[in-house]
Specification:
Shape: flat
Strand order of the largest sheet: 1-2-3-4-5-6-8-7
Number of helices: 29
Length: about 900
């Protein structure tokens, strides 16, 4: 069993009350503190820990924990302000290396704050990396706290009571139950840590000067003017008051430590200000200062972590909250945010100002706003959890240029999106060029594809611009979701209707003609000359009442999911006094289906038209914007209607052998590289991935004998050259097909050996596969997003046709369904050409097993299966390439601060 304790860096994490602790491996220098941890326990707690109330066990226990690193032992401690407050350790016996005995200790006075649970979570992650599959623990039967800790982890725990003792066995298999439990604990801690930042009772501004143009003064003015009801201070040694706000020479001189300090001082002063704030007991910082360099940023973050302060920024616009009783505006935007229900998190201050103004203009307003700037600490994931819990946010808007932990973001977003729409701008969509691809998978897996996979799986509505974000937000805020993509277009001008219909079709919406019954009902309400196709042309002569009747009849018909009304002002309506907009916005009540308006003369891209019962209807200046917004709403409705999806656990998987193969290969080649065909095949067999029978041959005679063994029913075989680094065999003309006899096999081998002399190390011999659909499946391990599974049409033209879909692993059943149905080639798999469907269940299994392999092996840099032969009788990988790199496992769901 390996021991890599020295290589595990210290991390910071949050306790249940939102305070920060540091977790790190135990070192010999910790001996005295650990002995003190034990001796300072109450006699009863020592009895529960050591089964004896005396203090004689403290020294030997500290000796054991601080002994030199050894296989089978790991100890983690939690410390705050340099003081050890908890310890968790395990010991594996030599005769049972996959099982280890667990022990936990928490300082008196710090129970029920999640110290022990947090330590055990980190120890579980480390133990799984070390190959340990179960913990055992002995506890006194009346040690209710530790027994509850084990029971609440979310892992399977078996307890056996033997007199005064309880013997516990904890299965370390991590499943959805464990992840959900850990996630819930993390959410509680995260929200508590954000309270001083987003609900401060007192605020101080550092860097508020006398110059009217200074950022600090603008921030102080905003806070004072907006009516912050808590205590407000300025920090400026040159004055005793600014804008009627009391000023003090330093944070340490304030009469009480504020919850939140907003820092607008020069970049060079920021680290010292942060350190002073930490020592004074400040709980949160917003650093708007720009120009903070790498060294200063490191010192800033160190101060925040050391003293347990949450940090927004640096280089940001600030934060604001409009909640009643907590309202404050610590930004230097031109205007105060309008109170409302949209949570907003951005990195760019300019984008933040645009969204604040747009949401205020629409009347949606903002619940909480955070400009994250360089995002050293507080992230979009933090804000999503805050909005999920705050009780008044019903719409989440994000503009993030980077993701610190995409897989954790995806889990959070999947949960939050089921409660409220989460919208984002897909920033950075374009690729300056595809990566220097060593395989078809790497060529296909662009940054755009990876981000789209993240957003699609998480149910996030991804738009292409800030304008589109606001357009979609207006509809999702004001109208119900459509049950499907069927749109009815109603207009008083034929040309406007055609534009709207074209926009809907281009957005992927369906425009079905009305049924005869619906057509008759519409014609009965409309003037002579009206046409009732789709669009419905009500003509310029339509009255307000007639238009209103048509809207209601369309909304009430089961064949219509949404109604788009395209209106233009006419002299006819002006002369009769008919208000066609009012025909759409007047009652009765809230409609069950979305209704939106397009007015080509409208000067703003989108507005919300008030409805008589207090609701609103979005009105767009462009039909394309209206159609895009409806399409976003329809996709959200479809996502919500789907089952949540689970990650299956395929049978017959040998994870231990897979890890051993990866470690053996990297032991021989520490720099990593492509597996040879034999190791590659063995790795695939660990995951039950079906392969075409094959043989390895290094000489001409070996190739002939292998061909004799492998000949199919028609006697034909294939020879494929191999050498380290060869990936695109067809481009290198390193394949000979349709070899029917010994002479052809010998000729083919001689040709390959001659042309690739000095390179070729051998050949792969396979029998010629039957006809079928050639597919492609692969994985790229993205350094930020994790493993991305790519699937689509295979063969030699896979990159040219670029018919691929992608999802981030681990794949749920829904993800696999999307992969199979997403590419344009999908109809071929379902037998639309008359040949019958391929083995769809077998194809699903291959994708699930490929996903599992990618999740199990962080060393797997690329896997490339091309072609994968799909027939009604089965799925077979004909050619597989796998590249490993020396990468350490990273637990994406482990609770820790960045």
């Amino acid at each position: 069993m390996k021991d890599d304790t020295p290589h595990r860096p210290a991390v910071h994490a949050l306790l249940t009350d939102g305070t920060t602790v540091r977790l790190r491996p135990v070192e010999p220098r910790d001996h005295d503190q650990l002995e003190g941890l034990y001796t300072e326990m109450s006699p009863d707690n020592r009895r529960l820990r050591f089964f004896s109330a005396g203090s004689r066990s403290a020294g030997p226990a500290a000796d054991t924990v601080c002994a030199p690193a050894r296989p089978g032992h790991r100890a983690l401690l939690a410390e705050r302000a340099g003081q050890v407050i908890g310890l968790a350790e395990y010991h594996a016996a030599d005769d049972a290396p996959h099982t280890a005995e667990l022990a936990v200790a928490v300082a008196d006075g710090l129970h029920h704050r999640g110290v022990g649970t947090l330590l055990v979570e980190h120890l579980v992650s480390a133990a799984r990396t070390d190959g340990i599959t179960a913990f055992t623990a002995d506890a006194l039967s009346d040690n209710h706290e530790v027994l509850r800790l084990f029971a609440d982890l979310g892992l399977t725990v078996i307890r056996h009571f033997d007199g005064p003792e309880a013997h516990c066995t904890i299965d370390l298999h991590v499943d959805e139950t464990y992840l959900t439990a850990s996630e819930a604990r993390g959410r509680t801690a995260d929200v508590a840590s954000l309270e001083p930042l987003l609900k401060p009772r007192s605020i101080a501004v550092v860097g508020a000067g006398r110059r009217p143009a200074s950022v600090g003064r603008a921030l102080l003015h905003h806070l004072h003017e907006d009516g912050f009801t808590g205590r407000l201070f300025a920090v400026n040694p040159a004055t005793t008051a600014l804008l009627g706000v009391p000023s003090y020479p330093s944070v340490g001189a304030l009469p009480a430590a504020p919850d939140l300090v907003v820092v607008a001082s020069p970049a060079a002063t920021v680290p010292d200000v942060a350190e002073e704030c930490g020592k004074a007991g400040v709980r949160a910082l917003v650093v708007v200062s720009a120009g903070v360099d790498t060294e200063q940023a490191e010192a800033l973050l160190t101060a925040c972590r050391t003293h347990g302060m949450r940090l927004v920024g640096p280089n940001c616009l600030g934060v604001a909250n409009t909640a009643p009783g907590y309202r404050f505006d610590a930004t230097f935007a031109a205007a105060h945010p309008r109170a409302g229900t949209a949570g907003v998190a951005v990195q760019s201050g300019g984008i933040g100002i645009a969204l604040l103004e747009g949401l205020s203009r629409l009347g949606i307003g903002v619940s909480t706003f955070a400009s994250l700037g360089d995002k050293y600490d507080v992230s979009g994931n933090d804000l999503l959890q805050w909005w999920e819990s705050d009780g008044h946010t019903d719409l989440a808007l994000l503009h993030l240029e980077s993701f610190g932990n995409p897989r954790a973001f995806s889990r959070t977003a999947r949960r939050v999106t089921r409660r409220m729409p989460v919208l984002t701008v897909d920033a950075g969509r374009t690729d300056a060029g595809r990566r220097a691809a060593a395989s078809h998978t790497a060529a296909a897996a662009t940054g755009t594809m990876t981000r789209q996979a993240l957003f699609t799986q998480a149910g996030v509505t991804a738009t292409r611009s800030v304008g589109e974000l606001l357009e979609a937000a207006a509809l999702l805020h004001a109208q119900p979701l459509p049950a499907g993509p069927r749109v009815a277009v109603l207009t008083n001008a034929g040309g406007a209707g055609v534009l709207a219909a074209d926009a809907c079709a281009e957005a992927g919406l369906a425009l079905n003609p009305p049924s005869p019954e619906l057509a008759d009902h519409l014609l009965a309400a409309l003037p002579a000359g009206a046409s009732v196709g789709n669009p419905v042309d009500a003509t310029a002569a339509v009255t307000e009442d007639a238009l209103h009747t048509c809207v209601e009849r369309l909304v009430g018909h089961p064949s219509v999911d949404a109604v788009l009304v395209a209106l233009v002002p006419t002299a006819v309506a002006a002369a009769t006094g008919d208000d066609l907009v009012r025909a759409v916005t007047r009652g009765p009540g809230r409609r069950a289906k979305p209704v939106i308006v397009v007015r080509l003369e409208q000067d703003l891209p989108v507005t919300l038209l008030p409805v008589t019962d207090g609701e609103a209807i979005p009105s767009y200046a462009e039909p394309q914007a209206a159609a895009r917004s409806l399409a976003h709403a329809a996709r959200r409705a479809a996502w919500l209607a789907r089952p949540v999806g689970t990650v299956p656990d395929p049978d017959g998987i040998d994870t231990s052998r897979a890890h051993a193969l990866a470690n053996e290969f990297l032991g021989r080649r520490p720099e990593g590289g492509w597996l040879d065909p034999r190791v590659c095949a063995e790795l695939l067999s660990c995951y039950g991935i079906p392969q075409q029978p094959w043989a390895w041959a290094e000489t001409e005679d070996d190739a002939v004998r292998a061909a004799e063994r492998l000949r199919g029913t028609d006697g034909r075989v294939v020879l494929k050259a191999h050498w380290p680094g060869l990936v695109h065999k067809s481009l290198q003309h390193a394949v000979h097909l349709d070899l029917r006899d010994e002479a052809q096999v010998r000729t083919a081998f001689q040709d390959l050996r001659t042309r690739f002399e000095g390179l070729m190390t051998g050949v792969v011999v396979q029998y010629l596969a039957p006809r079928g659909t050639e597919l492609f499946a692969g994985v790229v391990q993205d350094g930020v997003f994790g493993p991305l599974v790519v699937f689509g049409l295979g063969g030699t033209a896979t990159e040219v046709l670029a018919d691929h879909a992608a999802r981030l692993a681990p794949l749920t059943g829904q993800d696999v369904h999307d992969l199979i149905t997403g590419p344009r080639c999908a109809p071929l798999l379902f037998g639309t050409q008359g040949g019958g469907p391929v083995d769809l269940e077998g194809l699903e299994q291959v994708l699930h097993r490929l996903s599992r392999m990618a999740v199990d092996l962080p060393q797997l840099a690329e896997a490339d299966f091309n072609p994968v032969l799909a027939t009604p009788g089965g799925i077979t990988v004909l050619d597989a390439r796998i590249r490993l790199l020396p990468r350490r496992p990273q637990d994406p769901y482990l609770r820790r601060l960045r």
